Amino acid sequence: MTVQVATCSAAQLFSSHLLGDQVTGDARILSSDGTAIVGELTIPEYQRPYCWQDTQLSALLQDITAHSRHRPALSYYLGSLILHQAHGQLNIIDGQQRITTLALMGCLLQPHSEIQASLLQGLEYEHPISQQQIKHNLKWLKEKFSSQPEYWQGLVDFNKLQFTLVVTQSEDDAYRFFETQNTGGVRLGGPDIIKAHHLRAVDKLHQKPFAKQWESLGKLDDTVSALLKGRYWQRISMRELPSHQQKKQLRDCIVSEFAQQTGKGEDIAFGRTYRYTGLSGDVSHHQAQQGYDVRQPLNAGVNTIRYLSYFQGLYNDYWEKPDLPHLPGYHSLIVWLKGMEGCGYLEGLYKACLLLYISQFGENQLEQAAKKLFLVVYSRRVSNQKAVREKSIYAFTREYPVLDWIGLSYTPEQCFAYLDSFVLMVEGSNLDKNSVKKRFMDKVCEFFVLELKPGQYKDSFAQALTFKVAGDPL
Known about the structure:
Residues 207-426 form the DUF7834 domain. The protein has 474 residues and is an alpha/beta fold. The protein has three domains: 3-188, no CATH class; 189-271 and 291-321, no CATH class; 322-474, no CATH class. 51% of the residues lie in helices and 9% in strands. It has helices at residues 10-14, 54-70, 96-109, 114-122, 128-146, 149-155, 171-180, 190-199, 207-216, 221-232, 247-260, 302-320, 328-338, 344-361, 366-377, 380-383, 390-399, 402-407, 412-420, 436-448, 457-470, and strands spanning 3-9, 40-42, 76-86, 89-94, 161-168, 273-277, 283-287. The strands form two sheets. The chain has a five-stranded mixed beta sheet with strand order 1-5-3-4-2, with helices on both faces. The protein has a two-stranded antiparallel sheet with strand order 6-7. Strand 6 and strand 7 form a beta hairpin. Helix 12 (302-320) crosses helix 14 (344-361) and helix 15 packs antiparallel against helix 21. The radius of gyration is 28 Å and the shape is elongated.
């Protein structure tokens, strides 16, 4: 691994785009081994758009102001920049948000300077989101600076804003640094990090259309969370997921599962295939879904991008924004479930089950599957004494491997047999007051038209709901 490390000011960073032949004296940036760091700052196609907003701009200016007030003689440290050096360019792997923001400030506070030239000539922003955000931020900064231009010119001194540069000759090495360090500004989540990993694995000729496809997917967090549960919670290789509060550990799981552990190869999709053999011996093949399997192995690049795109589509169509007039019962159940109180952790498991079922069987008996999955997954709401805690969901899947019941079934009927073997139990406390459990059971009775008296909840609720799910359509 060849890595150069250097400390530089923002003024040095923008000076002639770090082109060594044109930079002399104090403007030159020398690494720890004495060699000059040269190249033109560029933003790779696969980088996320520029997305800093008013909150980040305001926080940066407040930090610079506070630092200047308390430590005026010292430089303000803006963190590390990770750059990949190749073909006379320094590709920005981590630091685009900070660099762009400083360039915008330079355009306003130091017109006709090298900083303005860097923004207008060296750094290119083709993504519409970047272009709109740059316009917005220029307007915001202009209004901020207009009342005291001389004050801000003295305060935002590019000679006193300092970076650490980490420059690698290998793109893979640059991303190893990127994936393991804490990022400043808008902290990157796992989906943001794996995006860069897979887009750089795509042939450069096709990077731009796949970058646009990724951006069109929107926020992937919920879909990736459901897929992680589907891949982690299986008897053959059971793994516990970090809590949603352990953001770094959870991010590391996403990077490991959907980036570091992906292989090299073609875009391959796995799925359930069944074969008909006629009396004459003729054979025909059929597949329930022309998509991907939740638990399949993945290859870097196009394969993982299309895998995530496929499941994001399923998530949007069957959970986030269901528009299914041909499945009115399923649609009404999902709309009702999304408004359920105190069931966030259960909802996470339920969405993982839905994605797994639909990816295998499509809409085949989907309404019935959704009801049976509800009875099993949401059982924790009535079998627990009080709250449903995050760790209890993992424990539940160890005792009742509902994801395996789906994943190991070849037909919906086989899956239903597993689900129907589950026995719903009601824990009797907190049913005589207006508790979360009691309100949940009231809503279930109303939705499924279970005609029970309050005093019958403990003895009759489970039997009535099981009968309703097994028989009557919604």
